[in-house]
What we know:
The chain has helices at 7-67, 74-89. By secondary structure, it is mostly helical. The N and C termini lie far apart (76 Å). The relative contact order is 0.05.
Amino acid sequence: MSVVITPQNIITAGAVIAAVIAILKYYNKVYDLVKHQKEQDNDIKAIKREQTLIVYSMQACLDGLQQLGANHTVPEAKEKLSKYINQQAHDQLD
């Protein structure tokens, strides 16, 4: 059995090759998107850890200021920060 090269066979082969290339490009785009999403998730986790550290450090500073007698707005700020931390822990932020 011999293969006859006809214009229709060339068109069919071109369509198959184009479809394979399109599928590979789509796969690569999805792969890059998933990879980028994982990188963003890791960045968000790092930012959340850093913000947690900053909030607890701020709370410690307010405690220290209050112990040193800086009572003008320190107690109010300390109370708001404590309320925020409590709400955050229980997912009750507005």
